[in-house]
Structure formats: C-alpha cells, structure tokens
Write a structure and sequence with these properties.
heterodimer; A: alpha/beta; three-stranded mixed β-sheet; two-stranded parallel ribbon; 2 helices; 6 strands; B: alpha/beta; six-stranded mixed β-sheet; 8 helices; 11 strands; 28% helix; disordered C terminus
C-alpha cells in the first residue's frame, strides 16, 4: 500500500493529461477518504468529465467535485489605469 | 479614453461554441479593442481554434490581438491554431507588435507567449544539463525577440505588453510557491520597465491575483479567466495622461 500522496499526484497528472479534461491547473486534495477537486474549467462538459477521469485513476474512491465553470458574464465595471 | 477588453485562458473547446459567442458578443459595447492573453484553446487543436475564430469573427472590425499559451502548444499544432485565429482578423503576436489608431490615438500592443524561469534572485540559469539550458535559453530568446520589436513603443500614445506567462511574483499570489518558476519570468517585467509601457497583461496563473506592479511601477493585470471571474475585464487608459508623459521622462535603467 503506497502513501496516499502518490495516488493524489497520479490523479492530478491524469486530470492534466487526459484529453477529456486537459487542465493542469486543477487542485487535488485527499480529505476524509474522498478525492476533493477544486479549480475552474471552461465548460460544464469538462467539469463532468472530471468525475470519470478521477474514478479511472482511483477506482472505488469517492469524488468530491467542487470545480466551477468560468463565468462568461459581461463585466460589471471597468478599471482606469493610472 | 481608450477602453481595452482583456481575458486570458479562454480554453476554447468544441463543447462551448454558443458560450464563447455569448462571452464575446458584448465586447464592442464595452471596449475599443480586445486582447487575448494566451491559452486560446484547451488542447491546442485546430477544431477548438475554429470555434474561437467563429466567435471572434462576429465582432466585425474590432481590433483584436492575442498571444498563444502553453495549452495552444499541447497538441504540437500551434502553427495551425495560430493560422486559424489569424483568419478571423486577429493579430497573433509572437515577439512582434501591432499598431492601431483608436480615437485619434496611437496604440501599440507588443506581445509574446513568454515562458518560465522564475523571478529576480532565483531565476533559472542556462547551466548544466542540455534540458536545463534549453529551458532557461527559451525564455531568454523570447525576451530578446520581444525587446527587438518594442522600438515602436516610444512613439505610442498608449503601449501595452501582452503576455501569457506572468512577469512578476505579485500576480501569482494564491499559487503554490513551488511552481512559480513554471509560471513566469522577471525578464518580461524588465522589458516593460525598460520600454516604459503603460500596462502589462498576462494570464496562465488561474489561482493568482489580478493586480500587481513591476519593480519600476508599471501596472500588471492577471486576466486569467478564473481570476477575473467574468467574460472579460475592461481597462481604460488616457492617451494624454501617463502615456503622454512618457516622451518627457528620462528612463534610467541599469543594464
């Protein structure tokens, strides 16, 4: 049985390189026996693929997917650069 | 006043075609030009670039400049990505600059992807293994090319430096410090100070912070999409303000 931190990093590597997700900027933590994934992705499709990729990399370990989809709303204001 | 819309790390994908159109459709109402700070696509695929190009083509004659990012290199098809985006009328900058006339003012945008290495005091050096030399020398080569294209900045009313990788530590606040050397290089802040641009824009650092300044005081904004948490940010600059004073100021810089 390896240290769980090795498994944690394997999941992070999978989320970065698997083309269903392809997001090296996500954060992976192990919390209370669950894989907690946080960060922001560009679409709901990518967000839902995270569960698949994590489950394949860590079979049987529950996934807590708290990743958000980037907002595309109009800006609420502007900043004057001085 | 010149209004510039900016966003990085759009990570365009074929699954987000309508969302991308929605994201950019309002830009002409808010800004005079649009700047894209790299990671135009998620996996660097031509079909992803086409989705973005379609959304940008709907903006008509709005001036648009972009740099590529690391995601755009993921599939080793960055030249195709670049050509597709350029086909939508976008100036894709790679150690090059574009000049626009906006509202009677001359705007210069100089840009490069940039790269890693880290920051002053701990920057990577071209020493040791060939892979380490290649890493450090890639950044130096990009900075050298950018420097050579920035002569036009001196005559601009407003000058912008557009990057993907970060030029300073400050806008990385929130990222793990262990990965700072992979997130940017101080060499580009040094160029911003040397050429006295008005604003530096970058992306790449999703967990970073929006605002910072170079050691010489130039405003830096991290416009990574997850950082600004909206479709794009808008910055206004007065061509008669700080930029107008550039020509009168003596810049001292220790080479």
């Amino acid at each position: 049985m390896g240290d769980p931190r090795y498994g944690q990093e394997r999941i992070r590597q999978a989320l970065a390189t698997d083309p269903r997700v392809g997001e090296p900027e996500l954060t992976v933590d192990l919390v209370a026996g669950r894989v907690l994934v946080t960060g922001t992705v560009p679409s709901e499709g990518v967000r839902s693929s995270i569960d698949e990729v994590v489950t394949e990399a860590a079979p049987g370990v529950p996934v807590d997917n708290r990743v958000t989809v980037a907002s595309r709303e109009e800006p609420s204001g502007e900043e004057t650069i001085a | 006043m010149i209004r510039l819309a900016a966003v990085g790390d759009v990570h365009a994908g074929t699954e987000a075609r309508s969302q991308l159109r929605t994201q950019f459709a309002s830009v002409p109402h808010h800004a005079d030009a649009l700047l894209l700070a790299g990671d135009l696509t998620r996996l660097g695929l031509p079909e992803e670039a086409r989705v973005l190009a379609e959304a940008l083509a709907e903006l008509g004659n709005l001036p648009i400049a972009a740099v590529l990012g690391n995601h755009d290199h993921q599939s080793d098809r960055q030249d195709e990505v670049r050509a597709i985006v350029e086909g939508a009328g976008v100036d894709v900058l790679d150690g090059s600059a574009v000049t626009w006339e906006l509202g009677g003012a001359t705007i210069v945008v100089a840009g490069t992807k940039g790269f890693g290495g880290g920051f002053e005091g701990t920057h990577a050096t071209p020493f040791g293994e060939p892979e380490m030399k290649a890493f450090a020398e890639h950044t130096r080569a990009l900075a050298g090319r950018l420097d050579a294209c920035m002569a036009t900045v001196a005559e601009a009313d407003v000058a912008i430096l557009l990057l993907h990788y970060a030029p300073i530590r400050e806008t990385l606040t929130g990222e793990p410090r262990e990965i700072f050397p992979f997130l940017g290089s101080y060499l580009f802040a040094e160029l911003a100070d040397r050429h006295d641009v008005d604003l530096v824009l970058h992306g790449h650092a999703h967990r970073g912070s929006e605002r910072g300044r170079t050691p010489g005081g130039i405003p830096v904004r991290n416009v990574a999409h997850p950082v600004i948490q909206q479709g794009y940010a808008v910055y206004t600059l007065d061509p008669a303000g700080r930029a107008g004073a550039r020509r009168d100021r003596t810049i001292t810089f220790a080479d």
